[in-house]
Amino acid sequence: MYVELDTTDLKVMGAIKKGLTTFGGIKSGVNLKKDELVKILDILDNSEMIKSTASTGLLGQKKLIIDLTDKGEERIQEYLEILRVKWREMLDLAIAGERAQLDEIIKENPFMVNMMVFFGVTDLPTLSRLNLRFLLEGKHLCYKCKKELKGFMQKFAVSDVRKFNFKLPRGMTTRDDLCADCFNNLTR
Length: 188
Ligand SMILES: [Zn+2]
Hints:
The chain has nine helices and two strands; from the N terminus they run αααββαααααα. It is mainly alpha-helical. It has a two-stranded antiparallel sheet. The longest helix is centred in the middle third of the chain and has 26 residues. It is globular, with a radius of gyration of 20 Å. Bound molecules: zinc ion. The site of zinc ion has 8 residues, from α9.
């Protein structure tokens, strides 16, 4: 049986693969509510993507250690290969200036580039350099520390950096913003 996994399921598996093996670790790693994560772990467990073992902590407390099964590991590798192929395809489109086709790909799969960043298939500096940050869904992140810039937070653009004669962070473009902390730490 081949179980369909959605973006969040795969992200949880990715977090486990990155070495987050406790409930709390995964929860903060992928930023999920408790009941959401319980549901996903249940699906992954039932489809034999993960296994859990009980271990005892230093103080005798019981801990649940979550791990990928071989089947789960295979599934993640498969998914990574799809992301890598897709990323190369998108790079070619970007270099050829095929903006409309890129937009089309993202419309079909809004979180794909976010997943590429999450799994290290590409990274934010590369996306910035290629002016492809618009492909990221949803979050607007500080260019330097990658903290999410929420609506009420102060943001600083290239024009602010120039106004104060600060040294522009390498690769920062007019599409990018800095948080107040990073801006205040810039030097002349
Ligand atoms: Zn920052």
